[in-house]
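Predict the holo structure. Ligand: NAP.
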Amino acid sequence: MTETNPFEGKVVLVVGGSRGIGAAVVRKFAGLGAHVAIGYRTRSHEAEALVADLAAARGRTKAFMADVSQPEAIDLMVRDAVAEFGRIDILVNSAGINPYRPLGTIDAAFVREVLDVNVLGTILLTQAVVPYMPSPGGRIIYFASRLALSPLATTAVYAASKAAVATLAHAFSKELGPKGITVNAVAPGVIETDMTSAILRERGEAIRASTPLGRIGTPDDIAGIVTFLASSDAGWITGRTILADGGVT
Ligand SMILES: NC(=O)c1ccc[n+]([C@@H]2O[C@H](COP(=O)([O-])OP(=O)(O)OC[C@H]3O[C@@H](n4cnc5c(N)ncnc54)[C@H](OP(=O)(O)O)[C@@H]3O)[C@@H](O)[C@H]2O)c1
């Protein structure tokens, strides 16, 4: 490990790493010397393009497909990543979906779909990865959302799923603390990705105007928070959710 490559030799699994915030997290870790396993659900071309783009990085990168709502798929992805890289020092779960519906149109299938990906996926991934993490020294970082703290109309199911993620970080920090593994979450406000392209088309100017820092957040605004939480400097922070929304809340 060096000052310029603080993650040299470390292995990071970034699930949901093929696009958006997760892809910025992958690039940041790769630039800091880590080996990165990239998890994605279906869009293999984007995951493979990212791997190709990082071919010259100091650490190795490789893409692995798994739907995080499927327990067997998660186990297989984690086993394949460990077979490739030997262990997992850091788990970042950026996989998530954000469909919004008004109360009157919410049905059981909709609720299950959101909770399966955002909540069950977070639990199953954590279960699958912990046996391969260094103890002490493992790091787990989830994505909650600003909406967990201040939901908006039609966001109820997504916001509740992200409140659950923040609570999972808090609760798992109690269980994994004795192993020396930290568990934290980042709660972004609106960040410019595929997930928010429709919202930004409709209300981008209003969102920018109501943001004290005067612009829309970018994936790079979030990636550095993740690498900080994964660093040795953050070893005394666990169970927390870091709000990063340009001052909106
Ligand atoms: N963007 C925001 O404004 C914002 C704000 C607050 C919180 N967040 C949270 O931050 C995280 C990243 O958001 P983003 O904006 O970067 O999202 P995004 O651009 O839509 O990318 C989502 C990523 O998650 C993967 N994914 C989705 N469902 C999956 C599943 N069932 N199994 C495995 N992978 C799956 C996608 O893989 P494929 O490419 O294969 O589809 C993709 O890599 C999410 O948890 C989101 O809820 C985002």
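The radius of gyration is 17 Å. Residues 16, 18-22, 40-43, 46, 67-69, 94-98, 117, 143, 145, 188, 190-191, 193-196 surround NAP (CB under 6 Å).
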